[in-house]
């Protein structure tokens, strides 16, 4: 998250920064007339104030979205479906999808974490509100979603979908739900390209193995 404390405080500081930038550009192929016009505009104190205001609003907006995302993850951790509803109610559909499909290396996305928590109702709610059943996360720490050694060597390969998380947990109802909502049963990890079927076999979940196999799942 950007910190407003790092932004130039005065117009003079902005002038100095922009002047240095345009002094550098003066040695390039940009026409002198264009440089002069741009320099005049960027050194306008009113423009500096306007830009600072826009940046401030943007940073606050992004901070609010990040806070909502973190609150959603906390609600999932507490199996609090109503808490998730409250966080999403104030967002329009596009922003709702953006927040729901965001992720980090600790929790994954809300859908990944809900699958890990084996909460069917929350998983269903997220899918109904725009969660992507094929969303991928590049890497997971084991802090919030630990697995045994056999599964972890697959999960850490990256490009993990909620289907693989559900397969690792042996949660057949969530696997069926994800599949019904368009989740790919053959989504592969990076490099070695493990699939949910590989994950379920590593975890030893026979009912999941049977379902995936009957529905065309392949090993990586």
UniProtKB/TrEMBL annotation:
Pfam family, any one: Ank
InterPro entries: Ankyrin_rpt, Ankyrin_rpt-contain_sf
GO terms under cellular component: cytoplasm
Keywords noted in UniProt: ANK repeat, Repeat
ANK repeats: 106-138, 158-190
Keyword field contains rRNA-binding: no
Keyword match Translocase: no
Bilayer-crossing regions: none
Name used for this protein in its record: Ankyrin-1
The organism's taxonomic lineage, starting at the top: Eukaryota, Metazoa, Ecdysozoa, Arthropoda, Hexapoda
